[in-house]
Amino acid sequence: MIYISLAFLLLIAVVINNAALAVLLGIFFSLVYKPNTSFISRKISTIPLQIGIVFLGFTISANYVLDIGTKYFLWITLFVLLSFFGGLFLSRLFNLNKNLSILLSAGAAICGGTAIAAIAPIIKAKPEELILSLTIIFIFNTIALLTFPFIGSALGMSSIEFGSFAALAVHDTSSVVGTALEYSSESVEVAATLKLGRTLWLIPLILLLNYKNKTNSRNAYPKFILFFIIAIIANTFLKFSYETILSLRLISQTFLMVGLFCIGTQSASININMLTLKPISFSLTLWVLAIPSAYFIVTVI
Hints:
Blueprint: H1 2-16, H2 19-33, H3 42-57, H4 62-93, H5 98-119, H6 127-154, H7 159-169, H8 173-181, H9 185-199, H10 202-212, H11 223-238, H12 242-265, H13 277-299
Helix pairs in contact: 1-2, 1-12, 2-12, 3-11, 3-12, 4-5, 4-9, 4-13, 5-6, 5-10, 5-13, 6-8, 6-13, 7-8, 7-9, 7-13, 8-9, 8-12
């Protein structure tokens, strides 16, 4: 019965093609069936999202990436650095322990759960610190996915502005794409492109922490980013037809819906008792500061 329900809910998510609904259906599935963490693991749930993002790359040209990236590169860099080091400074005011400070600051500044999972072994984070950080990021991502498109519409943001805003103000790459998907197809392309600029900062962060902690951790940098770049290059040189791009976009959206549904099922692994006031208050404060900063960058500058 559980597999029939899973297939049925996934079919609804794919057919309706609504990012928020896909996440909500995943949450509904987890609440009804309460699957164990191995049923759809956190690692497995990211695979369809990564495939969807790679297929999205086949619909974007390198010229488009350069046009958008050049305009916002400096601001993305400034945003990442201020978010990370500002988070570390702010954590002292909240008297947060060192590991949680680094995990949550990196997640907010760079790429959410991906950054947290990549650096946790380097700083020797405890399992409960890793789970707590991932849970907080998951909650914020879900809030953004469900509310940001309405906020963008209320503020009259253009597709390019909203895509840029989502790329800066939302944590995980998957949630950035899902949030932008709710707005327009152009927003998705802008969001995915600019989010790449943030994610690239994971490389120097891993190198810095490896050096500082004197470890030889071989944390895997998210490989789908490399394939995403290759897909963009392929589209640029092969010059896909309009019909081919539409098909690739449909494939991309299908995988994204499946991935967002899987992310929704991760709500089953949330332990409410672990959500203490101090780390939540710290993360919320950091996010509240980041949201208007992102809006200012994309609409005023």
